[in-house]
Structures are given as C-alpha cells and as structure tokens.
Amino acid sequence: MPVMRGLIAPQNTFLDTIATRFDGTHSNFVLGNAQVQSLYPIVYCSDGFCELTGFARGELMQKSCTCHFLYGGETSDRLTAQMQKALDERREFKTEIILYKKSGSRFWCLLDIVPIKNEKSEVVLFLVSIMERRRSRAVLYQLSGHLVLGANANPIPEYKVADVQKSRFILLHYGAFKAGWDWLILLATFYVAITVPYNVCFTAVEAREDGGSAARNPPSVSDILVEILFIIDIVLNFRTTICIHYVTSWLFVDLIAALPFDLLYAFNISVNFGVHLLKTVRLLRLLRLLQKLDRYSQYSAVVLTLLMSTFALLAHWMACVWYFIGRSEIESNNPASWDIGWLHELAKRLGTPYFLAGGPSVRSSYVTSLYFALSSLTSVGFGNVSANTDSEKIFSICTMLIGALMHAVVFGNVTAIIQRMYSRRSLYHTRTKDLKDFIRVHRLPKALEQRMMECFQTTWSVNNGIDVSELLKDFPDELRADIAMHLNKELLQLPLFESASRGCLRSLSLIIKTSFCAPGEFLIRQGDALQAIYFVCSGSMEVLKDNTVLAILGRGDLIGSDCLTQEEVIKTNACVKALTYCDLQYISLKGLREVLCLYPDYAQKFITEIQHDLTYNLREGHSTEVRPGRASPKLTPTLELQRTVCKMRGIKKPQWDVRINRSTFAAADGDSELSKNSPDVPLSGRVLQLLRGGKTGSFSAGREAKSLRHVQGLFRQPP
C-alpha cells in the first residue's frame, strides 16, 4: 500500500471544535447562516438542543435561528425584537427569556447569541445557545461567561479552513527526516544481519579455540554506532502517542536488539560463547522488512532490490551454518565422522590439514560455504562440495527445501515485478500484432493499412495506451469532474465559456472527448452530418470546398456550427482535412444540448457568443460566395494567400471562389469590429509555421525559402 499521509491537510474543524468546547452545559445550541439576511436559517442543530426542545433535527433545519418556533404566550415581544436587532447588527446578545417546548410546556432559559467570523473577519454564522434556568442567576451568568469573546481562555473559533496545528517536535511518518531515518535503521539492520551470524559462526569459533572465554578483539566503531542507532530509535518511537502501540508490539524486540553487547568487550569484560548467540536476537528486527515491502510495494525497483537482498542474506546465513556444522564435526572427536566432513575434505584438497597447518583459512572456508549455499538454494548442487556426515546431509536437505520455497516466493515476485515493468511494452506489441492480424485477415489495401498503423502508433505515443474513461470510472463524480476540468482546461478557457458557471463547466468537461487526425485524413467531409464542435489542440488543418482552400486552422481554432437549439441534422458545407498530425477535443452536439438545457441562463449567451468565436462555421447555408472581382481590397491578401497555398499543394486549376462566413466578409469591408484585429495576421503565422515544420512536400531548400519569402511579402503589403 502507498504511504498514508495522515489527516494533516488543511481542514475546517469548526464544528468539531464547537462540539468539544460546548459539551455539557452549553451543548444546547444552533448555528444560523448570517449571510441570509432577516431569516438567518439554521444550518446545524446540536443533539442537546433537540432533546431540550423536543423537535427533531429535520424539523429545525432552515428555520430562523431566532427560534420563533419556541415562542409562546409569555414570551416577551420586547426581547424577541432585541434578538432580531442584535442579529441584524451582527453583535453579541445575552438575555433571559421564557420559551416553549414542542410539547407546549414552558421553560425559563438563558439565551446567548454570538457572531462567528471567518478569516476575513466577516460574520458568517450565529451561535444561538440556550440553557434551561435551574440554578441561581449568578451561577447562570458565571457559566455563560464561556461564550464571551475576547479575553477568555476559550474564545469562539473562527469558521475557516486552517492548517492543522502540530507541535514542531512531532515527527511526521512521511517526512523527509523520518523516511531517511527509517532507511538508515534498515541499513543498520542489514549490517547486523550480516555481521552477527558471521561473528557467531566464524570469529567466535576461532576465539573459542584460541582462548576459550577470553576476551576477543575490541569492537569496531561501526558495531558501536549501530547499537547507538538502535537506542536512539527506541527513544524516537517513545516521543509520540504511538508509544502505547509500540510497547505492545516492537519494544521488546528493539530492547533486546539494542543491548550493548559490544560495550562488554570495550570494558574488557570476559564473556562466554552464549553472549554471541544472544546477539542473534537482533535478527528479529528484519521482520520490519515486511513493513517496508508493503509500504513501498508500488516502487518496483525498491521491491526488487529488497527481495534480491533477502535472497543473498539467506545464502549468507546458510553459509555460516554450513561452516558451523563442519567445525562441529571436526571438534566432535567421533572417529567415524571427524575425518570425512566437508571441512576436512577441503583441507586435504588445499593441502592445509588441521593437525599440521591449522586447516584452511577463514576466507577460503567462507567462500566455499557461500558457494555451497548458493548452489544448493538455486539448484541441487554440483557435488564438488558435498555432504558426507549425517548432520551435513540433514542440513543439505533443509537447504534444498528452503531453496524451493525461495524460488516460489522471491523469484516469483521478481518475475511479477519484471512483468509489470514491461507490461506496457508487452501490451503495445500485443495490440500491434492484433492490428496486423486484422489487416491480414480482412485483406485491407496498403494505403488503408498505413493509415491505421500511423494512427495507432501516434495515438499510443500520446496516451501510452491508457484508457482515461476506464481509469476514472470508479472515482466519485465530483473527483472525475475536477480531473476532467484539468484535462480540458485549454478548451474551457476559451472566451466562449467565460460566463458559464462552475457547475456548467464541470458538466461540459465530462462530455469532452479527444480525437486524433494524421496528415491527409479527413475529419469532416462536405455534406456529412455534423456531430460535434471541434477544438484544435495542436497541428494544422485546412477547410476545403471544391478543391479550394477556404481556411487554414491551427492551435486554438474552433470549428463547428452555430445552430444548436433545435434537434435537426446539420449538414456541413466544406471538408476539413489534416495537414499535420493533429490533436483535437470535441463536444458532441447531443451532449451539448443536454447541458444547455440544464443551464438555460447560459444557453442564450452560448448561442450568441459561438457565432463570433467559431473560426469557421461549417453549417450548410451559412457561407457567402464572394468572387475576386467583387472582393473588398482588404480581402486581397487572403486571396493571394490561397493562391500560394494551392500552388504549393500542387493544385493546377484551382477555383478562386472564396467562401467565407458573414462575419469575416464584414470584417474585410471594415463593417465589423473584427477588422480592427486584422484576422489575416494570425493566418500568416499559421501558414509560415506550416511551411517551416509541416507538410512541404518535395520542395527543395531554395524553393521552400522562396515560398517563405513570398508568403511573408504577402502579409507585409498594406491593405
């Protein structure tokens, strides 16, 4: 599981604070909304208030916090008027008044009204508290002092989102210091897991032969530092409220692991062989490795490293035990087995017999033991280091069984991790193979095959094979809407959606889809039924009619129709073709109509604004035909631009009829505000971008440079 970060995000703990602060004597209260003038409806009611008055919480919600439903025949009109005035003036008020319960019985109570402010010092809530008068007036007013603002010890909290206050001495379990400390303790634990078995089986045996219980060499600095680290770790775990859980779980193990055995040698205190065995209790700290595996399970590289380290550590332990068994056979003085053990055989092969040369060196013995342990864990061994005595054979059997278990656990996990690491690549190859099989089975033509492969490969490079809708389907609607707004923020930031409410934007974001077009692909063909409004996120497209370029579209352009109010089929008046690889976002007309029906106030604004925000209107019958002879002088650069583009695209006999929408035609004649924005200038940028990095065909470098200069000259001409 991932590391949990705890409840330390900014929160509004006002309600919890109020419930805790006024528990007991002041638990009978309601909260009224101060932002609704005159009414001040109740937005929260405590359980004590319901018990005192006899009303259910559902009956009190949205009623006035003046508690007019508790008024009766003996309720003072003067006091109720003062209460209303205090609420209107947003000031504190305190009085004694007679009220009536739901059952009709009256009660005399102390009533307090306290305004509650937010972080901007604005009154947003009223706390109205009532307390039944059963004691003397002096006692009641003394108790009511808890509600006085300002100088008291427990003032009314503010209604705001605030950061959780924590002591600077508290260590966050996900903080950088705690994470670094945990890894330091883990490394120290691995150090102990390596050195303790080695010292017990190799160093201690040699020391026992040399001097029995004599003190060994002084401990190393690293051993003392590890013991100090373990002691500090216990102190850190006792600093917080988790100490109770720590006492019942890991305290005993950590105390044993932190016992300063090495300090006994530092003070020249003689110890026997049993003290070395006690140090093996420190190996219990390795159980915390399981916590690490669970916490960092989403990091494949970390888990893979820990698993391989565990396997190597187990082989080290087996090597130490294998050496210990060999030494025990030699020291047993059993005439039937002392001279056939594996250490005795190793000594004879190396020419270092025990009685003449003291046996093989510790280095040779350890390397041979580790070789036998690894060969037994990973396979059945090679026989050059074999088990001869009964003890050695029993240990070899156990080693093989443990090796089989480790193969299932460690290498099974390693295989799964590696598969996860390459799962995306494997999925890509699987999809590619399925696509090729589909093409082969259905005998698709070469051109269509190339288009399919290009579309698949480019789409995969964009989303890496992740299906967003499938990924987000299990998330709450609120969270999915926020994610969708972030993913589609470029489209939702258009001026077209500036006046839309947040709820409308959230609804729109959920119906926005993505699409892709490869160069040469037609997004829309003339006469097709228009299904959506399209937004160009990247790339270049052109609008064609009768082989005539009507418009060139680039990043940020919007194309579609302005007729959205009626359920009618909208025929397109031109083709839209991709010049480069294009990423698109689109809103289906059906979904758009449904959203606009939910927000009628915005619907009319949308219909009005879209007429101006569409880069090109594809609705049939919207365009106006203009011939060059009748074109305005301000339209000449556009006509020259179209001639240049058609010439570059190899159109030999272009039709010079230009069809543009009415707003653009008015702009060309100077009759619209659009003329002030010079619509041809951004168009020139798109063409230049297309020539430099887009589809230039088979142009030579000189011809391409000439075309660039020609287009630049077109847009430098005065209108």
Automatic annotation (TrEMBL):
Residues 93-145 form the PAC domain. It is found in: Cell membrane. Keywords: Cell membrane, Glycoprotein, Ion channel, Ion transport, Membrane, Potassium, Potassium channel, Potassium transport, Transmembrane, Transmembrane helix, Transport, Voltage-gated channel. It is a multi-pass membrane protein. GO terms for molecular function: voltage-gated potassium channel activity. The potassium channel is probably composed of a homo- or heterotetrameric complex of pore-forming alpha subunits that can associate with modulating beta subunits. Pore-forming (alpha) subunit of a voltage-gated delayed rectifier. Activates at more negative voltages, exhibits fast prepulse-independent activation kinetics and deactivates much more slowly, but shows no inactivation. This is Voltage-gated delayed rectifier potassium channel KCNH4. The lineage of its organism: Eukaryota, Metazoa, Chordata, Craniata, Vertebrata. The gene is LOC115383727.
